[in-house]
Each structure stands twice: as C-alpha cells, then as structure tokens.
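Bumping with the actual sequence this time:
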Amino acid sequence: MIIMLRYYWFFFALILALGRFAQLCALYMMDTPLGGPLVSNFNRFLWYALYSEIGLVMAVALVFWGVSKIVRGKGYTVVKVVSLVLAFLYLVLSATNDEIMRWISQRLTLSYIRTYIFAFTDTGLVSTIFAGSAFHFVLSALIVVAFMVALILYVKKYDLAEASSLPFDKKSAGAVALIFVLAVVGCTSHLWFNPSSRRWDRIRPVAYTLVENVFETFEMSDPGEHYREGIIALGGNPDQKYPFWKEAKDEKASMEFFKAKPMEERPDIIVLTIESLRGWALDMRIEESCNRFRNLCKLARGGAYYPNTHSVGFPSIEGLLGIMQGVFSFPQGIFLNSYPNTKMRSISEILSEAGYYTEVLIGSEPNFDNSLVWFQKWFDFYEYNAENENDVALAKRFVELYRERPADKPLFFHWMSRSMHTTFDLPPDMGPKPEDLDEAYLKATAYMDSSLGIILDEVENGTRARNTLFVLTGDHSLLNGKQSLLTEKLGQIFDGFTWVSLIFNGPGIEPAVIENPVSQADLAPSLLGYLDISASNHFMGVDLLGKGMPAVGAFPPVFSFRFGDMAMRRDSLTYLLPQCTISDSVMVFKSYLKPTWNTSSLVAGYGTGMPFAMDAAMKSEIGRTMQAAAIAWRYIVYSNLLMP
C-alpha cells in the first residue's frame, strides 16, 4: 500500500503508457484498410514510438506530482479530475491519430482538425469508413475504455491526499527521480537513440505535433534567405509584391467582347472530378483499362489526354484547391481551411464575370471536410443531397439540372463523383462488394464510368453537343497495398497520392496524348486560354491549350505538397523532398511516362518510379532549390500575397 502511494504518479503514468502501447501494437501489427501493414518492419517504429510516449506521460506525471504537493483540500479532487480528463484526451487523440495514419498515412494536426471537425455530418461516408475497418475502430475504442476504467479504479483506490502527505524522504525522492529519469530519457530518445528525423516525423506523440503547429506560425513570417530563387522555381516574379499575380489591363474589354459573342461561340464547360482516380490503373493507353471503362476511354482518346497528371496535394479538398484556384497546396497544412481568408480568385468566379452560369453537384457531404463555404463562394448554385450519394444517382441529377439551365448563358458545371471513395461501397442492387480491395476499386470505377455515360449521352443528344468542352481529372490518387509500405521511405506525396489524369475533350481540340507531367493547377489557366479570355489571375499552372490546340514542347516543373513533404516532377524525373522546410536531402526517381510497368494487374501492378543516380552536386542544388520554393510559397500564403 505504502509503495503504491509513494509511487502514485509513476503507476498512473505507467497505466497510461500501457494503454498507448496497446494502441501502438494495433497500429503497427494490424493491416491497414488498403491491405498490408502500415510499415514493412514494426520493430523500426513501434519501440521508438513507445519510448517517446513513455517520456511524455512521465513528464506530465512529474508536473502533476509537483502540483499535488502544493494543493490542499478540494484541490486534490480537482487534480484527480484534471489528470483523468487529460488521460482521456491523450488516449482519444492518439487513437484518432492512429486511425488517420492507417487510412491516409497522415498525422493529426490543427489544420486537419479544422478541416474535418464536421466530418460526422456525412453519416453515409463516416459509416462506410467505419465499416471498412470496424474491427480496428472497435478495438481502439475498447483500449481507451479499458485503460480509462483502470485509471479511474486506480485513482479511487489510492488516495491522492494521503500520497501527497507522505514525507519527502529518500524513498519518495527515489520515486520522483525515477519519473524524472524516464521523462528525460523518453522525451529525448529521438535525439540520441538511433536518431532519424524521418522516423520521428511519423512516430512523434500527437501532443508534440499539435504544439509544434502552434509555433510553426512564427516561422512562416520568414521568406527565407533564398526567397528569390524559390519564387522563380515556382514560376513567379520575385520583383513583384504579389509574385504570382498577372494583371490583365484589358480584362474589362475582353469580358465584354466575350459576352457579346453568340451562344454557339461561348462553349459550355463541364468539369468532371473523379474521386480517388489512380492514374496508373485508369491509364487509357492500356487496352484492358480502355475496354473496362468505355466512357472514360472515349473522352481520353477523343481529346487532349494528359495521362501523367498530378494533384497539387492530398486529400480531396487539396485537389479542389488545385482545380478551382489554380494554385499549389500549402506546404504544412490544408490550404483552404488553414488560411480561409486568403484573397483568391477562382476560375468559376472569373467565368461568372464572363457571363457563365456556374453550378456544382457534390457527391460527398461538403461539411465533411469543411468545404461548404467555398462552394457558396465559387458557384451561383451548389447542391449536395444525401439521396445522391452514388455516381449514377448523381449523374441522373446532373441531367435534371442540365435541362433546367438558363437558356441565355453558357454553362460552367462542376460534377464531383463519390462512388470511388474508400471503401468503394455501391448500391445494394450492384451486388456484393468484392473482398479483394483492388477488385472493389475496379468495380466502383466501372460504376462511375457508367455514370459518365449518362452525362455524355445527355449532352450529346442536346442542342449544345457541338458547343461543350468536357474536362476530366481526379481530386487525388489513392495508395495501393504495395505503395502503403513505401510511405516510411518516400513520404506522403509520391505517385500513390498524386497520380491522376487530365482530359480536355471538345470543339477545336485535336486528339493527342501528351506524356509530359502536368498539374491540376494547369486546368484553370488552360480554360482561360481555350476561351481566349484575358483576366487577372494568380494561377500557378500553365495554359495547356492556347486557343484549342494541345501544348507541345517544354513544360514547367510540377509541384505537390503535403504536410511538410514535397514533390517536384520535371520531364521524366521525380524529386521527392520529405520535411521540405527543414531538409534539402532529395530522392530522385525515373518516372514511367509510358505504361511499361506491370499492367497485367491494373491496381497493384505499379509501385513507384525507379531510383535514379544523379551527380551529388546537382542533386544537392536541386534539393536546395526545392526547399527554397517550399519556404517562399509558405511565406506567400501566410502573408496573404496571392492577389491585391
């Protein structure tokens, strides 16, 4: 009894650490929802994570020991309640962080919380995600409940007031010394015990991440010593206050000229954003893919097809940023929710000023990722209806809205699919979902493709068939089982997260396959070029179409960012820079610009590019330039310098 009282806070922290250990075992020893383990060797992560977690809980226990020596009377009750509440938050936040890691290989951050704080409003999507990994969700909840019950029973059985009233003798000092040593050793273990900044970035306790997020804002006010070089790398003008702002002096005249054109010279634009489009699996240069997905193939082979397109980031709301705003993702968070007051001008807002009627049909609850405010800003009309949470229903709703469109205005319509979102659930009349996740994805893709057929048929049978430009792309890609094991080495923004496709199919566009890497951010400037509209903008992409013809020749580098990691693609080389704002150690890969990987397995046949040997000096210079670009772009966003 006296030992338990003397070591009161040590045993409290030990119970909490055991709870976290159970969570870590579930994280690293069980398969992810995409198939296969989270890491190739759990011993390289689990124990290192545990040491730092022990350090954290022991450090907190040391603080509570000090507080409990000061308080009196009811203060002990307050200390017990606060300690239990913090323990509960610690376990719940850690469990949440683990689930996010399992699903999308991402940590829980303040930016992530701001984005998904209303995720529960999409009950359909939340329930399918839960069903896709129900056992792990339940296990995580049981671990939290079990160890919270253990802590409550412990606090009830052993009196804190009695423990705190014990004289501070050698034995008591030994108990405090034990907590202190474990706290120091654990909290610093990532610095001296086989240190690896890449591993630490993945295993650090969620509390560290959240605190670090707060202090990151102080760093963002610094443009970096290589600001000029970074802005130039991103395609901006470092001599301007707003480096990416392109002022169109003739904008008003251009808009009026366009609006005065007859309707047949003002084409409708229908943007089809496909959920989780895996560019390698849905490559229409592969005959099997073309045969499986006839409508997608029809669009690709009848238009300007860019099979090596990459999203600006991950998840969906980042893809939306690239498509609608024409800018890259924020290097250390989710742009639209981290900086909602940023002055920006979307492609739909520009087209609205040019006389277009703009509307969007959303497949997933916009409150899920807190994107509703952006749809309200961007479009004349927006709609989400829980009854249309599958792509065929969504396509039929498109038909209804398309027929109700204003007759005197060209149409800009953004259709956002749903059915290819994990866990690939389809309506009951489509039969059982394949147990194999790759087959489930392909079945969901075929279902999506049938919905494209509904949309294409409606337009082709209407009066605007020859006056409609279709644009198809993906919001982001999706890891396969093989790629999920590569995140520990390659980071969070390689091909498995970003490889999508881009298609322009409409009047004046010659069928062509352009294999150069391009970006989602190219969509917006390409539409302005296609329509020959001069408008001031901050688009960071390039015009791929001009006045209808696919661009050829040199292409600028393609950038993607995600929570500290960065990718740059130039011609056939891919440069990956994890922890881009603090490291310039870049990895180089030779990209597959043609489908020469294992195409016999559409989903699982591709992992990533081939490692490429490069001169060390050149590699170092590229890494430094990429880091400069990341820091400069971070500064631009933080300082709200996209447009006047």
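The tokens above came from a reply further down the thread. Residues 234 and 629 are 6 Å apart (CA to CA).
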